[in-house]
Q: What sequence folds into this?
């Protein structure tokens, strides 16, 4: 029986439940020194001076670095697909302040307490310049994103004549919505431990990163050494959700500090420091206009997004990626605008772009269903696309209809009274809403190595990572399955930049990319062992032992021209039930059903976990999460985990996950489409539409907190 | 074990009783229990997620009660029994809740997991492990950003039924 | 945190003396350590109250006596507390997390500082609580959680304790120990409102320590209820809350105690609401009519305007709960 498709427990489970799994801040080193950053308290301007007298008197201080004495960094590269367009922060290199909570100095001391204490005593003087923070003011200067800025975002291509069609359409809706900035807020704090070899030529870094090899390249460039001399290690990532895609300024700072003091240095950002030290899902405003025939056939879509950005980089994302393919429609217009303000650059957060865009699109679709007096499910079913009209390609497979009908059936959608405000549970208003989910099935080049030793041990290696989806387990499954071994007979290595090349661990493409590379390596290994023994069957461990030497094989995956032949997309459908307390305006999610067509499911146990996690993330996005930035100063007003609210166990509804069978022979590799992002994408709009159904009030601003409902 | 910080405040320091072993640390009163465990004793199972008692990743059992070790001064934990995730498995055998976490896939990234398990062990001791509503309410001090809560509930119920 | 001296007094009197000499008190430490780690407070001397505070919870004919050293969790699950003053159990069980409740003391709970994000960010220049005279960044800022009652141009911060709201409704008395001896203080005298000095939050004298809390046992206390409104279902301070006790006889309200949290600069006793209830039939119409008085004098400052909208609805619901509705 194939191991692929089996609900196997995590191979890293025992390490994780005993505290033996080591994350970036968990690696000990002899003579470790501790670092703490000093952050800016203005949003824009120049640093005019530092008063270090008090800080230097704190016992145990080894060094204080500012732009005046820090080592000079080389140019930090832009590595696609992660880095935005522009000039990234080069920390401690000049006197410019670009945003609040920017790292402007670092203190290194014997102990963590001393480092933080001294950092708190660094006095900074500034020449502030006027900053624009308030989004309403920022929007007045919004401009279209340039071609360069959105070059990698194919969703931005429209077709037909949306404006003219909207003007003559039988039924139209015009839906404006806003989503606040969200922070990924993985529970693991961002941390870097850096150590230079005694000759100062080699750097070892334990870093919280989703891409060890990109981290090595960035550090190599910054410190003017070849990337091979930078060893980045991160076997376990304590969640990331996009927050560890880029190499953030503190990683360079830790390496600079280690270089200056000649000792290993550990730098852990506090939760408050994290808000300015990394990125966030951008604040967005979207306007979706739909035009349809009386029978619900879509004729035109105009979907415009305006997204916040910093002034030093432009980050755009796939907000408009789903709109031109999700529904059959001839006329589509997709303007993307950017609004620059004096904040730190936004970046990708789980379901980047699509989570934002599908929210607005599905809100508008719900409004269209109301305008048409039509079941929202029937409206979706009427507009299911036959092919990808944007790329003008067939889908490798599409199970949207099956997802919709399967989820609707499991949810009991046919018992819905479509009249808003009509359903009750005692005092509570009850609402049922639904939305479609979608994420591209991305995959890129990857490599792997497989080895069997003369002792009969199998080692498989690739430089990928595991931030939680289960790479450790699913890749072991692929290797064990290919080699016809038991799971415990395969020893996997990941999370190390010295291992064979692997892509960024993000964008739901890990198993689709490294899975087939590992399979290829294992097939080649088996071929090499059989070839040496002159057999074409048998246990490779036994044969290797008998022959008495090691065998090794390199494997690779290259998607080749797949992208030119097929549009590869995962689809899903999400149904949600909410209660609304009419006295308190509290909204609670009671249950969610999701059905997904995502190709091959390698491990249904872990896949379900991904999906229930995406649902919880969607609940946060819909009801709780917003990064409050003071509109005058740019300070993060809720820069913690007490007032930046993520869902708790008490917020957990009944969660029902199902995968519709989807054997996709066109999608390549293992037949997988990826799952991490699509699990989140449709959740918030399903909840938002359920809130409308419960109350008859259309909340157009995420999160839907009691204050917004009370004032709606 | 005797760990020295070269520049910290005065002896006599602090004696901690962790997982049945006594450790003397030459640390001052400003060191939290969490930082004493992680940075002085190399017991990195307790995690730092917020350092402000807002996430639960640092949960340990102190005097039989679950607490945020980031909100305890090590000096005030002097000579009081402390159990961390490293001390939970007896003789190499996993605690029933540790095993149930694996069975029910009650984690993804694993970072909040030591805190969840320590909190869950205490919750079961408190007699709150059998009722789902009680579990949901009284496990809400442990944030899980991967959203594994539904599986954590299942794991706690199973372990509670067995203990 | 910075280095400091931890002083360990042998009794309350010594502790009070050390406090009067400028030492800062620490009890459970759950709020103090947050403030110290964020550099909002930087004491160089801490006086450890933990060994000298009374942790006992006692029920007698007069009601409950809760030692200020009792942990929130111990009080929350105490059967006599649930019997005599269920609003206290409810308020505590809806507060913080079990881990925090196992550390935090009752005295410390009453003296925890506001959750105002401008107060808790030492990188913000304008905060009259942190730096008297520097201004108030919350006015005109992100003030969704801020107060609509008792505010001034100096400060609009709320007091975050749920427990204190229940105590105000139940007319609890604080037993204080100070350098000059002991005294009793009604709970509603503990907190100050501020026109000019928001940094002065309580009427405690230098060195004075909350030693115990006395809660009278009455028919009112036994059916009082606590209702808390928040974004998520647990582990969050209140956006709004209400503690309500009603004495109903023959379908008529004979006595009422009403307090609200999350709306005022201190736990807010709603005397006009109470007056409007007396003698009225115990029904939803009376509750709604009385609850409308809750917003008298309320001033919105932007994002907290919804509190004025929600106050009557939330209070009417709490009255219905205390009146025996499901």
A:
């Amino acid at each position: 029986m194939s191991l692929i498709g089996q609900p196997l427990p995590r191979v890293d489970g025992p390490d994780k439940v005993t505290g033996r799994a080591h994350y970036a801040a968990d690696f000990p080193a002899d003579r470790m020194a501790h670092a703490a950053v000093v952050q800016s308290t203005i949003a824009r301007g120049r640093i005019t001076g530092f008063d270090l007298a008090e800080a230097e008197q704190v016992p145990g201080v080894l060094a204080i670095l500012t732009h005046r004495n820090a080592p000079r960094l080389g140019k930090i590269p832009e590595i696609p697909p992660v880095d935005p367009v522009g000039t990234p922060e080069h920390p401690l290199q000049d006197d410019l302040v670009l945003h609040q909570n920017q790292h402007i100095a670092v203190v290194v001391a014997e102990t963590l307490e001393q480092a933080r204490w001294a950092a708190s005593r660094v006095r900074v003087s500034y020449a502030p310049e006027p900053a624009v923070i308030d989004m309403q003011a920022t929007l007045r200067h919004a401009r279209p994103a340039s071609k360069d800025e959105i070059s990698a975002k194919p969703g931005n291509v429209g077709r037909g004549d949306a404006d003219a069609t909207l003007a003559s359409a039988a039924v139209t809706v015009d839906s404006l919505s806003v989503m606040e900035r969200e922070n990924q807020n993985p529970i693991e704090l961002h941390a870097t431990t850096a150590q230079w070899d005694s000759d100062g030529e080699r750097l070892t870094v334990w870093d919280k990163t989703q891409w060890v090899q990109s981290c090595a390249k960035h550090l190599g460039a910054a410190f003017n050494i070849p990337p091979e001399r930078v060893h980045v290690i991160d076997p376990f990532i304590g969640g990331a959700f996009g927050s560890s895609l880029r190499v953030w300024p503190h990683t360079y700072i830790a390496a600079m500090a280690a270089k200056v003091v000649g000792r290993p240095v550990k730098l852990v950002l506090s939760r408050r420091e994290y808000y300015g030290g990394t990125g966030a899902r951008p604040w967005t405003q979207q306007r979706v206009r739909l035009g349809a025939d009386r029978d619900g056939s879509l004729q035109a879509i105009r979907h415009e997004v305006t997204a916040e950005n910093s002034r030093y980089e432009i980050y755009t994302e796939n907000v408009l990626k789903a709109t031109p393919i999700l529904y059959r429609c001839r006329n589509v217009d997709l303007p993307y605008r950017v609004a620059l303000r004096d904040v730190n650059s936004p970046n990708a957060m789980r379901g980047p772009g699509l989570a934002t865009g599908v929210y607005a699109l599905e809100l508008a679709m719900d409004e269209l269903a109301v305008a048409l007096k039509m079941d929202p499910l029937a409206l979706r079913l009427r507009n299911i696309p036959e092919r990808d009209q944007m790329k003008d390609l067939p889908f490798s497979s599409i199970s949207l209809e099956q997802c919709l009908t399967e989820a609707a059936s499991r949810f009991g959608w046919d018992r819905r009274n479509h009249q808003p405000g009509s359903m009750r549970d005692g005092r509570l208003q009850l609402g049922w809403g639904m939305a479609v989910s979608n994420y591209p099935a991305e995959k890129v080049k990857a490599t792997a190595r497989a080895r069997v030793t003369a002792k009969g041990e199998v080692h498989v290696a690739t430089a990928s990572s595991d931030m939680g989806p289960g790479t450790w387990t699913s890749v072991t499954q692929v290797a064990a399955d290919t080699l016809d071994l038991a799971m415990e007979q395969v020893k996997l290595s990941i999370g190390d930049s010295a291992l064979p090349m692997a892509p960024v661990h993000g964008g739901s493409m890990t198993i689709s990319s490294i899975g087939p590379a590992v399979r290829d390596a294992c097939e080649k290994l088996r071929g090499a062992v059989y070839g040496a023994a002159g057999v074409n069957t048998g246990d490779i461990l036994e044969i290797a032992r008998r022959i008495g030497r090691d065998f090794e094989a390199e494997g690779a995956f290259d998607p080749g021209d797949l992208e030119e032949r097929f549009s590869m997309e995962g689809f899903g459908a999400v149904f949600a039930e909410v209660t609304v307390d009419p006295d308190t305006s509290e909204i609670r999610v009671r249950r969610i059903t999701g059905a997904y067509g995502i190709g091959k499911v390698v491990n249904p146990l872990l896949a379900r976990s991904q999906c229930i996690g995406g649902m919880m993330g969607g609940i946060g996005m819909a009801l709780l999460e917003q990064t409050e930035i003071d509109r005058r100063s740019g300070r993060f007003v809720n820069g913690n985990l007490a007032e930046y609210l993520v869902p708790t166990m008490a917020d957990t509804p009944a969660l029902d996950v199902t995968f519709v069978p989807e054997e996709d022979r066109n999608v390549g590799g293992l037949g997988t489409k990826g799952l991490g992002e699509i699990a989140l994408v449709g959740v918030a709009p399903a909840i938002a539409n359920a809130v409308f159904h419960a109350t008859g009030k259309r909340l157009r601003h995420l999160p839907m907190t009691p204050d917004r409902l009370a004032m709606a | 074990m005797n760990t020295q910080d070269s520049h910290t405040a005065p002896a006599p320091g602090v004696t901690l009783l962790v997982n049945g072993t006594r450790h003397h640390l030459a640390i001052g009163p400003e060191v939290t229990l969490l930082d004493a465990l992680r940075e002085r004793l190399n017991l990195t199972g307790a995690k730092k997620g917020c350092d402000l008692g807002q996430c639960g990743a640092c949960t340990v059992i102190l005097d039989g009660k679950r607490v945020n070790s980031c909100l305890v001064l090590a000096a005030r934990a002097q000579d009081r029994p402390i159990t961390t995730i490293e001390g939970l498995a007896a003789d190499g055998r996993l605690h029933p809740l540790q095993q149930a976490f694996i069975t029910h896939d009650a984690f993804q990234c694993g970072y909040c997991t030591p805190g969840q398990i320590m909190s869950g062990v205490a919750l079961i001791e408190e007699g709150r492990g059998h009722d789902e509503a009680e579990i949901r309410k009284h496990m809400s001090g442990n944030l899980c950003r991967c959203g594994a809560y539904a599986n954590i509930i299942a794991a706690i119920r199973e372990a509670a039924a067995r203990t | 945190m910075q280095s400091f001296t931890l002083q360990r007094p042998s009794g309350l009197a010594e502790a009070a003396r050390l406090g009067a000499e400028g030492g800062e008190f620490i009890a459970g430490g759950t709020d103090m350590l947050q403030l110290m780690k964020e550099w909002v407070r930087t004491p160089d001397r801490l006086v450890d109250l933990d060994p000298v505070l009374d942790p006992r919870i006692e029920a007698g004919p007069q009601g409950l006596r809760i030692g200020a050293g009792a942990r929130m969790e111990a009080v929350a699950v105490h059967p006599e507390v649930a019997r005599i003053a269920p609003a206290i159990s409810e308020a505590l069980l809806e507060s913080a997390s079990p881990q925090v409740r196992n550390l935090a003391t009752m005295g410390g709970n009453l003296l925890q500082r506001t959750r105002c994000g401008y107060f808790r960010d030492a990188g913000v220049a304008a905060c009259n609580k942190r730096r008297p005279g520097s201004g108030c960044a919350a006015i005109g800022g992100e003030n969704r959680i801020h107060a609509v009652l008792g505010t001034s141009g100096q400060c609009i911060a709320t007091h975050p304790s749920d427990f204190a709201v229940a105590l105000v409704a139940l007319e609890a008395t604080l037993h204080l120990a100070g350098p000059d001896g002991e005294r009793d203080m009604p709970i509603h005298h503990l907190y100050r409102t501020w026109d000019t000095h928001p940094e002065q939050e309580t009427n405690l004298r230098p060195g004075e320590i909350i030693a115990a809390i006395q809660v009278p046992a009455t028919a009112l206390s036994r059916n009082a209820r606590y209702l808390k409104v928040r974004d998520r279902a647990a582990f969050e301070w209140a956006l709004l809350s209400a503690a309500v006790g009603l004495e109903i006889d023959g379908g008529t309200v004979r006595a009422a105690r009403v307090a609200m949290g999350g709306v005022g600069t201190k736990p807010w006793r709603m005397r006009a609401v109470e007056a409007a209830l007396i003698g009225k039939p115990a029904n939803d119409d009376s509750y709604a009519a009385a609850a409308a008085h809750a917003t008298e004098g309320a001033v919105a400052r932007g994002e907290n305007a919804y509190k004025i909208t929600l106050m009557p609805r939330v209070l009417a619901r709490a009255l219905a709960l205390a009146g025996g509705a499901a």
Q: What stands out?
A: DSSP finds five helices and six strands in chain B. Residues 1-11 of chain B have pLDDT under 50 and may be disordered. The two ends of chain B are 34 Å apart (CA to CA).
